[in-house]
Amino acid sequence: MILMKDVYKTYENGVTALNGINVEIEQGEFVYIVGPSGAGKSSFIKLMYREIKPTRGTLFISNKDVSELKEKEVPYLRRNIGVIFQDFRLLPKLSVYENVAFALEVIEEPPKNIRRRVMEVLDLVGLKSKARFFPNELSGGEQQRVSIARAIVNRPKIVIADEPTGNLDPDTSWEIMRAFEEINNSGTTIIMATHSKEIVNTIKKRVIAIEDGLIVRDEHRGDYGYES
Amino acid sequence: MLETNIEVITDMRARTIKRHFREGIKNIFRNGWMTVASVGAVTMTLLLVGAFLGLILNLNHMAEKIEDDVVVKVLIDLTATDDDVISLGDQIKKLPGVETVVFSSKDDELQSLINSMGQGGDVWKLYEQENPLNNAYIVKADKPQETENIAKQVTNLAHVDSVTYGQEVAQNLFKFTSYARTIGIILIAGLVLTAIFLISNTIKLTIMARSREIGIMKLVGATNGFIRGPFFVEGLLLGVLGSIIPIVGVLAGYKLVENSITGVSSIGFVEILPFNPFAWELSAIILIVGAGIGIWGSLMSVRKFLKV
Ligand SMILES: Nc1ncnc2c1ncn2[C@@H]1O[C@H](COP(=O)(O)OP(=O)(O)O)[C@@H](O)[C@H]1O
Ligand SMILES: [Mg+2]
Fold first, then answer.
1. Per the database record, which ranges form the ABC transporter domain (chain A) (predicted)?
2. Considering its fold, how many domains does chain B have in total?
3. Nearest to residue A100, comparing CAs of A146, A67, A160?
């Protein structure tokens, strides 16, 4: 499903963020990416939706070499990957419904499909009743659930999240995790970078630990392994 | 099956284009003064484009008309006797390519000068007593290409004061047109660049204001073409808006010039290109140049931004 072979990433300023990554992730897996700040977790994630290109090495997603992809093909890669960030990245002037529908409109989905699908995902993340609300009328956890709804509205095979609970209090974080588990149960691969010891140690999944751009640990049903 | 597919695709296209126009128009209003400034720059540019093109094309047209003139005018030396004049006429008749040779006395010459000047010609009436003009031969060539050759040969004959012919005037006019064209191109190029710069900056404003939105569009897999759409429309509309005043100006101005020139049509060779279709063609050029400036400006500012 996802296969990285000897992946290196050196930024233009000379900083090497990834230092020879080898990893394979199967369809339907739930993977935590852990490690100290600056270890290379975000860089690892950015590779997968082609925000950045590896300096060396190959990266396959669904048997397609993502590092070789032409600029023109990148949008179509991204239609198969949902991305979620710490800061939600919602459009403040659009309602909850519009924020989610936006993701389908800009890839030119027929309107008649949009309405049904948007309400479906809002139901899944438990926000059907707040479809008309605006982002600033929602709690942090609710805003993050809107961004999750937007990430999955296009039925991607992979959802990647970079510290999705980083801005949320512990209680709210569990709402988010419930949503992720539900998405994972329907067969979607989830890759999530996190600093939350509680989450990793409670909801046991595969744990990949990165330090100084290298994978130093890869365990199924692993522990967080750091003092937080 | 195929038909419904095509229907779905055209439906999609129509919806997308509508969306791009809606967003593009929104931005035009959102950018307020920058919109006014860039439309103003396009307007100035196109006014000049219109004026210069109108002038240059007409001068060219006149020069071509004159070039086609087959008449050579031979001014006869003031000291020539009647016999000299007659023998000169015979010699000219024998030159190859000459069709007719007509004698025009200095009184005929003065009369036609007075006529051609209209009101102002009255001054010349003073000279009726003491005519300072030369007797002349009006020589007609078979073909326009022969005139220059005939003129040159006539110049070498005895008792010829000077020779004038259409091509000479035409060449001077062509030379003038080419100067005018050079100056016009430099001026217009400068203005076009200014207009493109202003438009691309206006559109950059829109891009900045919408960078968050564009970031999300890219994230969820919108194509660059789709993202570019509204900016393309915004640039196009800025260009087209800028061409409205110049087009009205060209149509009205040209009508005015045409009317005032036909009023004094006695000035023989001043004949401008007819309003229909010339003024309309000029308007079309202005519209196309305006749209081009707008699209170019918008593509310039979007291109950098869309590079990943
Ligand atoms: N765009 C960038 N340009 C230059 N250096 C960067 C860039 N992004 C990240 N880095 C550097 O790469 C290293 C890894 O960063 P990152 O992948 O963000 O780690 P993490 O997400 O684990 O904190 C850090 O040293 C960081 O400073
Ligand atoms: Mg990070």
1. 2-228
2. 2
3. A146
* Residues B23 and B93 reside in one and the same domain: no
Give yes or no: residues B56 and B175 share one domain: yes
Yes or no: say if A210 and A44 are a contact pair by the CB < 8 Å rule.
yes
Q: Per the CB < 8 Å rule, is B12 touching A50?
A: no
Both structure tokens of B266: 């006695």
Return the pLDDT at A11. Answer: 97
Do B42 and B112 fall into the same domain?
A: no
Q: What is the 3-state secondary structure (H, E, C) of B135-154?
A: CEEEEEECCCCHHHHHHHHH
What pLDDT does residue A228 have? 62
- Is the distance from CB of B247 to CB of B282 less than 8 angstroms? no
Are B58 and B180 contained in the same domain?
A: yes
pLDDT the model gives residue B44: 87
Asked whether the beta carbons of residue B223 and residue A75 sit closer than 8 angstroms, the reply is yes
Q: In Å, how far are A58, A215, B284 from A10, measured between CA atoms?
A: 14, 16, 53
pLDDT band at B128 (very low <50, low <70, confident <90, very high): confident
What burial class does residue B56 get, using C-beta atoms within 10 Å of its C-beta: 0-12 exposed, 13-18 middle, 19+ buried?
middle
Chain centre distance of CA B53: 2
Tell me if the pTM is above 0.80: no
Q: How close does chain A come to B302, measured CA to CA in Å?
A: 15
- Cross-chain residue pair B212–A150, CB shorter than 8 Å: no
Task: Give dist(CA A225, CA A207) in Å, integer.
Answer: 9
Q: Is residue B247 part of a domain?
A: yes
Cβ separation B218–A154 shorter than 8 A: no
Domain membership of residue B29 as a residue range: 17-66+171-305
Can you say whether residue B98 is alpha, beta or left, with left for phi > 0 and alpha for psi between -120 and 50 degrees? beta
| B226 contacts in chain A (CB < 8 Å) | 106-108
User: Looking at chain A, how many residues does it have?
Assistant: 228
Which of B213, B219, B307 to probe by mutation at the A interface, max A CB count within 10 Å? B219
The verdict on the CB of residue A38 being under 6 Å from ligand 1 is yes
Q: Are residues B91 and B221 in the same domain?
A: no
Which residue would you say has higher pLDDT here, B224 or B260?
A: B224
User: Residue B15 in contact with residue A113, Cβ under 8 Å?
Assistant: no
Q: Which atom of ligand 1 is nearest to the CA of A52?
A: 1
What is the per-residue pLDDT across B173-231, written as a single tens digit (0 to 9) for each? 778 777 877 887 888 888 888 888 888 888 888 888 888 889 999 999 999 889 988 98
ipTM above 0.85, yes or no: yes
Query: How big is the A-B interface in CB pairs under 8 Å?
Result: 55
Q: How far is CA B19 from CA B16, B64, B220, in A?
A: 5, 50, 18
Identify which has the larger pLDDT, B86 or B304.
B86
Ranges in chain A, pLDDT < 70: 228
Q: Which domains does chain A have, with CATH numbers?
A: 1-80+156-228 (3.40.50.300), 91-155 (no CATH)
Residues B61 and B95 both lie in one domain: no
